[in-house]
Amino acid sequence: MHRSGTVEGVSEHRPPRRLALIILVLVAAAGCLGLGYWQWVRFEAVGGTYQNLGYALQWPAFAFFCVYAYRRFVRLEAEEREAESTGGRRPSEPDEPTEIPEDLLPTRPRTLAEAREQEAADPDAQQINEYNEYLAQLARRSDRSAQ
């Protein structure tokens, strides 16, 4: 007899129940195939266009993707369970960490001190700052004379 609140008697190798996910995949795939058939019928109709034919060929690919994504999900889950039980690493895991190339990401915002350091070294930035200061002085003079 098993005590309440323990995990005795629970099979570790029993796949988790995923009935709702299976139903979702089947409904999605059937819906995609139905839409593909509907587009095929529209293509064969008098007013059908090649756009309908394109969609008629595209919807079954979406249905295939639904099934493929579910199978991949199940395999990755099983792979993870196996890796946890053996203590090894997953076969789908890369050997070394992947890195994003630095020029792909936008630059990070700089602090005010970093911006000032960079501007101090850049002669063009110094010229622009001097010109902006000159324009600010002109604006202040204009405001005083208008009063």
Structure description:
- Keywords: DNA-binding, Membrane, Transmembrane, Transmembrane helix.
- One of its GO terms (molecular function) is DNA binding.
- This is DNA-binding transcriptional regulator of glucitol operon.
- The structure is a single chain.
- This protein is mostly helical.
- Among the domains are: 68 residues; 27 residues.
- It is 66% helix and 0% strand.
- Helix 1 packs antiparallel against helix 2.
- It is flat and about 75 Å long.
- The model has no long low-confidence stretch (mean pLDDT 83).
Based on the model shown, name its key terms.
single chain, 147 residues, mainly alpha, 4 helices, 0% strand
List the helices and strands and how they pair.
Layout: H1 19-44, H2 50-86, H3 112-121, H4 123-146
In brief:
The protein is mostly helical and 147 residues long. 66% of the residues lie in helices and 0% in strands.
